[in-house]
Amino acid sequence: MKIENSLFKYRFQIGILGLLISLLSLFMFLSPQTFMHQRIYVAFMSTIPFPTLLALGLTLLIIAGELDLSFPSIMVISGLSFSVVFEATGWASLGFVAALATGAFAGLCNGLIVVKIGVPAIIATIGTQFFWRGASTLLADGLALNLTEVRDTTFHHIFVGRLFDWIPAQTLWCVALAVLFWFLLNRHVFGDDIRFIGDDIKTAQMMGVDTDKVRISLFVLMGLISAFTSVMVCLEMANWWPTQGEGYLLLVFAAIFLGGTSVFGGQGTIWGTVIGSVIIGIIEAGIISAGLSGYWTRLVYGLVIIVSVSLYAVAFKTRRI
What we know:
By secondary structure, the protein is mainly alpha-helical. Helix content is 77%, strand content 2%. It has helices at residues 2-9, 11-30, 32-35, 38-47, 49-63, 71-89, 92-117, 121-139, 154-160, 169-186, 189-199, 201-206, 211-237, 248-258, 270-289, 296-320, and strands spanning 145-146, 162-163, 167-168, 239-240. The protein starts with a helix and ends with a helix.
């Protein structure tokens, strides 16, 4: 009986893992020369951690009933801070601090606008998305910055180097932060507060939860995660460009909703987000290796979001009835 209850409780996590295994098996069958070779998995470990990190931060926000559409622009302004400071001082660590400070400030602005002023999160973060993107383009005169020298730094090896010459360091950082976020959401009072706010913010306030503080903290955390990811992207590519972060919005939302986080708030898992990110990360390679055009990718991503959100909307209505 206990085993059956556990299986029912974790049915969504088991289901998403089953989907990942099924997709990998299908891709191995359709394109064994690609998916039976180590190189494709090294490539996955190099690229998938970036949207996964962003999805982890955004998962907590969505569980709390909030939203942040500005994280791609926070990435670009934070990456610019890192690049400018590194070019000026030659110290990647100082650039890293500058990037985190920039990301935290941008997240704080989002939190204050949403929580204190009362602007809906979707409107506020659309506005700040345009603002930070425009500011970074103006400050950089629309030009990319070459960071080739950063490849020779210890900082580069720590964050995006290769362990045993084939395991990308960003994968290890992603796993470590996923574990940290799991403990934060499931084994800390802060995680309980997030769920209470997502379920019913008025009830959470009656229970003594400082809802304003929690919500602002989540926006700041999202800003920090965006900055951290941006720095790793700059290190991996040895470059900063004004369009940095633009391709992550669709990937991140698809991963989160596929992973079981409810668009209505109050429900979501770190495990589901991680597995959802892996699924979204391998879809494009699977589509292309199967002989289809890469143009199918966005169609599939959009379909994933629509189906996932629809399924959880039906589940939400059923639960309320």
